[in-house]
Design goal:
By secondary structure, the protein is mainly α. The chain contains 2 helices and no strands. It has 2 domains: 28 residues; 38 residues. Helix content is 88%, strand content 0%.
Length: 68
């Protein structure tokens, strides 16, 4: 019984690695140009949103200071 559990465990472990390898082979990697364009787009949008949030924060701070 113990031998059967050990081999079953090894088979499950082996089949898990086979499944992992099969899923890894399904990945479609983007080319370098697309990766660079998407990275630049994310950085630009992040900077723009940071500036917008900073402006809103400053405006709210000045508004609160006027009230107080």
């Amino acid at each position: 019984m113990a031998d059967k559990e050990k081999t079953t465990g090894k088979q499950k472990k082996g089949s898990w690695f086979e499944g992992l390898r099969a899923e890894f082979n399904k990945i479609i990697w983007t080319d370098k140009n697309t990766l660079v364009k998407q990275t630049v787009a994310v950085v630009v949008i992040t900077v723009i949103l940071g500036v917008i949030i900073s402006v809103f924060d400053s405006a709210i701070l000045h508004g609160i200071n006027l009230v107080v």
